[in-house]
Design brief:
Elements (H helix, E strand, L loop, with lengths): L4 E3 L15 E3 L17 E5 L4 H14 L6 E6 L4 E4 L5 H4 L2 H7 L3 E3 L7 E3 L3 E9 L5 H15 L5 E3 L5 E3 L3 E4 L1 E5 L3 E9 L4 H7 L7 E3 L8 E3 L11 H13 L5 E4 L10 H9 L1 H4 L6 E10 L6 E11 L2 E9 L6 H11 L6 H13 L3 H16 L3
Parallel strand pairs: 1-15, 2-16, 3-4, 3-16, 5-6
Antiparallel strand pairs: 4-8, 5-7, 8-13, 9-10, 10-11, 12-13, 14-17, 17-18, 18-19
Helix pairs in contact: 1-7, 4-6, 9-10, 10-11
Amino acid sequence: LLMHTFKGCAVQNSKIFSCSAKTTHFTNQTLQNVEGTGWSGNLIFQSKSTDIHQNLALEDWIETNVDLTNRRLFLLWRSHAAVVIGRHQNPWAECDLGAMWRAGVPLARRRSGGGTVYHDMGNLNLTFFSCRKLYDRQRNLKVVTEALRRARPELDVRATERLDIVLNGKYKISGSASRLSRKASYHHCTLLHSADGSALQSVLRPSTPGIHSNATPSVVSSVTNLTDHAPSLTDMSTVHFYSFSTEFGLSSPLSLLDPSDESLFPGIGCMASELRSWDWTFGKTPKFTIETELSLSDDLTLEHTTAQLHIELKNGLISSIVITVQDQWLQQTLINELCDVLTGERFCPHRVAAAVSTLIKSEQDETQRRLHKLSNTVISVMG
């Protein structure tokens, strides 16, 4: 799902969700009424939410609570600006957490695998649910490519062996990821319609240098917006609604879902809260190591030196840290005290800054100034 290098962005306020297909509002009878009908039990939904964690929770709720035996469900959704990483990824290696924090862009970790993707209102998301027996990512992507070909025959779009969708043989417009449980599955993909390319570039770059990890890395791809090649392509939900209906042979209205409605989706609020939590977003990061060189200077004496930083991290926590400063710039006993304070802390700049404040205040003059500088330099590594 990675989209890093952006080609020719032209952001537009296209109404990619202005669906002209017949719509209904979802009730707790919607799924129950499928039973006993003459068709195969396929349903098509559109989320009313633009909150990334609510929409990810909706995917998980459907997978967990809906009987998908011999049934396909199709969900269309969008979210406000967010960065979404795969289940087994390292956020410090995938995105600029500092830039995201300053821009108010949240980070989410989904339960499926795959790479990192930038979301905003110019990015359409499509989720295909089925039982494992009906799981077929190639067929799902055919829904997307056929929809685009019908809407704009001049577009050269095709699915790749990596299960991406590319335009003109080189620009990625869609990436895929999936989750399979014992009986159910879902496959979701993105579709770049009119995303903010400058924002995408600013956040999809590493926060921290010198990371060594077995986490799943994203694959850098050149991407483009569909509107850069077909400016009048706007009603994306309608074309995918009809393409899904045609591919899987059904006649069903498009039902609108409100994933914040606990009466329809019991427990979904707790699922969304878990996805928002630090323990899930950062704490599920596979263990990793950071090895990097720090540049230090005393702002008063202008004396410069370097330091070697080695950090071991597990579950997003600092399990061990070693700092070796050259030229006796700062007493090693004090550096060891700093390392002791940081051990066991979250790898989080705000938490670390609070943790070291007492130690810094206990020193004076040059020692305090240099300890403060070292602490801030270590914190800067955290993004």
